[in-house]
């Protein structure tokens, strides 16, 4: 029996027509959108605490870590876009061609765990945001997050273009809120520029009673390159419709997808920098060890004794709104990614609403358990974030290594194969990221056992 391979995310594949013979800006607009969906993974609630704590404890020191991590992410996402455009397969489908059925199932299970781990962070972020904004108990807030399945159903009725527009709007909201708060905080611009140059203090600095600068740097790096983003990008770039047999059209698609990706990831880079700068400007040297949770940050933004003249309930509310937007953003992309890896690795398809409901119900179980048995407090559920990073770190190599191998294969990519500098930088980044993530796993386990 001949097996016919289905298109990745068949519901949206090739649904957005690219106009022929238009100018650069009009074509770029037509190709723009997938980058926004990918950028969401680089500014989820898990990144927030790490970046703000890094600033609170070590001022601007770790800005260089955010820069390097973002550059690596840009390199890998460009490879993902190119893989999807040239081969017509997403990363899960392409990886399956390299391994046997049993291995594909194992890879699918590991990737699903990573998606669920990411989902837990979004549940926590959204529930805490609802608690801060409307005083809804965390346990009830976690349950309410199940209802966002209906949001996705409505959005899918309008097509992928509307989803891209909504996600970009939420990203812009987060960007504007934090840019506004950082401007009011009046940071030291010269110190910020200097901090983008890596310094040896990253490996040696340690504040009494807090995590070391190196440990926080590991957390920033581990949370930056998300494995599910690699699968997502390789699939959603195929939503554009053009003549895929035309070599010039394929070349143009890669070009515009690269520009879109880099622009959107630049937004996520800036937002993560703003988070760290906000933490450094407002909290460094002012009892930074007390700034470790979303609720504490919310309270501090209203505390004139801690923050100074800029403190206000409006700033605190904007912070909570941005947190809620971040959680909803990642919710949308998590469902799409889950469908991609399920179809790609095991050729199994579920309607979006079923996929969304199953993933969310699994994700809320550990959060509900912690809230119910250990107490309905933010500090309890936020401890789960440390565990979720372990799953993400484990899943990273099984997505990065096949990606680099596939895009560096002339047999599969033809004339669009990675150039030598890309291959060298890609493997170097892979070795560094995998090594650092192993270190993060070790140190996280040690921290949890201590």
Please explain how this structure is put together.
There is one protein chain. The chain has about 450 residues and is an all-alpha fold. It has a single domain (about 25-450), classed as Amino acid/polyamine transporter I (Up-down Bundle), CATH 1.20.1740. It contains 21 helices and two strands. It has helices at about 25-30, 35-40, 45-60, 65-85, 90-95, 100-135, 140-145, 150-160, 160-185, 190-195, 200-205, 215-225, 225-235, 245-285, 295-300, 315-345, 350-375, 380, 385-405, 410-415, 420-450, and strands spanning about 15, 240. It is globular. The N and C termini lie far apart (about 55 Å). The mean pLDDT is about 80.
Query: Which CATH architecture?
Result: Up-down Bundle
Global mean pLDDT? 82
The topology string of helices and strands comes to EHHHHHHHHHHHHHEHHHHHHHH
Can you tell me the number of structural domains? 1
Topology:
Layout: E1 16-17, H1 24-31, H2 34-39, H3 45-58, H4 63-87, H5 91-96, H6 101-134, H7 138-144, H8 148-158, H9 160-185, H10 189-195, H11 201-204, H12 213-224, H13 227-236, E2 240-241, H14 247-283, H15 294-300, H16 313-346, H17 352-374, H18 378-382, H19 384-407, H20 410-413, H21 420-449
Defining traits:
Amino acid/polyamine transporter I, 2 strands, 21 helices, 450 residues, two-stranded parallel sheet
In short:
With 450 residues, the protein is mostly helical.
């Amino acid at each position: 029996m001949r097996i016919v391979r289905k298109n990745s995310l068949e519901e949206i594949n090739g649904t957005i027509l690219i106009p022929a013979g238009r100018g650069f800006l009009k074509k770029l607009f037509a190709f723009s959108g997938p980058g926004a969906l990918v950028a969401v993974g680089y500014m989820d609630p898990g990144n927030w605490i790490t970046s703000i704590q890094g600033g609170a404890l070590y001022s601007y020191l770790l800005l260089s870590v955010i820069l390097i991590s973002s550059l690596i992410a840009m390199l890998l996402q460009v490879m993902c876009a190119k893989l999807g455009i040239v081969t017509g397969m997403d990363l899960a489908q392409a990886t399956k061609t390299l391994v046997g059925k049993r291995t594909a199932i194992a890879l699918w299970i590991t990737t699903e765990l990573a998606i669920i781990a990411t989902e837990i962070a979004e549940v926590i972020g959204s529930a805490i945001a609802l608690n801060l904004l409307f005083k809804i108990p965390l346990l009830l807030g976690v349950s309410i997050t199940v209802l966002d399945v209906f949001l996705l159903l409505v959005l899918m009725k309008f097509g992928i273009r509307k989803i891209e527009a909504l996600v970009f709007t939420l990203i812009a909201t987060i960007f504007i809120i934090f840019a506004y708060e950082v401007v009011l905080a009046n940071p030291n611009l010269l110190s910020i520029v200097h901090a983008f140059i890596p310094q040896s203090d990253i490996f040696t600095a340690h504040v009494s009673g807090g995590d070391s600068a190196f440990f926080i740097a590991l957390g920033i790096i581990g949370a930056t390159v998300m494995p599910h983003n690699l699968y997502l990008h390789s699939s959603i770039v195929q939503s554009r419709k053009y003549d895929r047999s035309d070599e010039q059209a394929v070349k143009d698609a890669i070009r515009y997808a690269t520009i879109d990706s880099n622009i959107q990831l630049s937004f996520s880079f800036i937002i993560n920098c703003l988070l760290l700068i906000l933490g450094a400007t407002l909290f460094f040297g002012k009892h930074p060890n007390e700034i470790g949770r979303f609720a504490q940050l919310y309270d501090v933004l209203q505390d004139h004794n801690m923050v100074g003249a800029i403190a206000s309930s409006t700033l605190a509310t904007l912070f909570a709104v941005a947190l809620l937007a971040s959680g909803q953003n990642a919710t949308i992309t998590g469902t799409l990614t889950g469908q991609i890896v399920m179809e790609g690795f095991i050729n199994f398809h579920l309607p979006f609403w079923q996929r969304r409901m199953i993933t969310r119900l699994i994700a809320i179980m550990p959060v509900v358990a912690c809230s119910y048995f250990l107490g309905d407090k933010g500090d309890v559920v936020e401890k789960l974030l440390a565990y979720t990073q372990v799953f993400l770190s484990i899943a990273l190599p099984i997505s990065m290594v096949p990606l680099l191998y596939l895009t560096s294969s002339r047999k599969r990519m033809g004339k669009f194969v990675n150039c030598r500098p890309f291959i060298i930088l890609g493997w170097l980044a892979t070795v560094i990221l995998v090594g650092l993530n192993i270190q993060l796993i070790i140190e996280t386990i040690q921290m949890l056992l201590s």
